[in-house]
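Quick start: read one record
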Amino acid sequence: MLRDPEVVITAEPRVASQAEQTVGVSAGTAAVIGLQHLCQRDKPTTAYLMIGERCGCDCAFCTQSRSSTARSHFLSRIVWPPYPLPHVLHAVANSFAQGDIVRCCFQVTVFPGYFQHTLSVIEQLHALSPIPICTSIVASSLDAIQALLESGVERVTLALDAVCERVYRETKGGDWQSRLKLLRLAAERFPGRIGTHLIAGLGETEQEMCTTLQEMVDRGIMVGLFSFTPVPGTAWASHSPPSLSSYRRIQVARYLLATGTCRIEDWSFSPTGQILSYGLHPSRLRELLADGQAFETAGCPGCNRPYYNERPGRTIYNYPRPLSTEEIETAISFALTELSDEQPMISPVPISNDHETRRSQA
């Protein structure tokens, strides 16, 4: 049942642009909430909405970056057709009431007035429904983050994407240190309500990825883990995604850290930064991975992002559903095939200890 069915048609103090009168809806979401017909094996359990189109930022991997020549209604390899905003918000609220979705996630591009417009949209949805809301957005301050949380957002995601300054500079530009500082401060000020995105395959080593994963876990920051996906029209269209074995090792690393099973101080890495050992006996490691959860989509509760990183029928990087027995065994084999306890220990990059350690559940 809607909280207030009139809220989304309340007059705005200014005339909204055409883009602001609509919202992008991922194709899978549009089918689940009744906006279009689409046969899909794995349905999204979160409603994915995109506010804005071409972004003021210029991330090398993003279809919405200002220099991208990809079609405007794409994000990663997913099409997000625009629909009238009031219609979408009502459809999301109704779908949540019916149990078809469990959360709503807003992906927000940078455009003039994007922050205030996002606040307005979130307030409208929050007035309609108690659905948990998260948003991935460029926020400039703790006050901005607080405004989002007060408007009805459950979790604010401040996407790092790149796991170290070197990779950040090559793929995103801008000031890595200030972005990381805001993320750290936000996690301290708003515990349990801050997330980030990390993308594997942007040129980082596995050791660099694990170091950042450990810090995020210690600070109580929820990590949405992605595999780099080359998309035509982007600056990195010709780059390759990470190998499946490397990504499986990273998934295992995130899972072990998030569940508090071990820490990277006990792991070993090769001179080139590849994971060689998690400091666990192989039989114990297989036991921990036997349910396949390590290889499912990682992010907010209820977020499964079907086929965001892959095409249906092709190799799956992030499973949007529980794995079959055969899929689990194959995934574990890819993750463990290059591990060795006989390689020399290479100390991880030092982790900041100026905070209290928090352990989240995967």
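Residues 1-157 form one domain.
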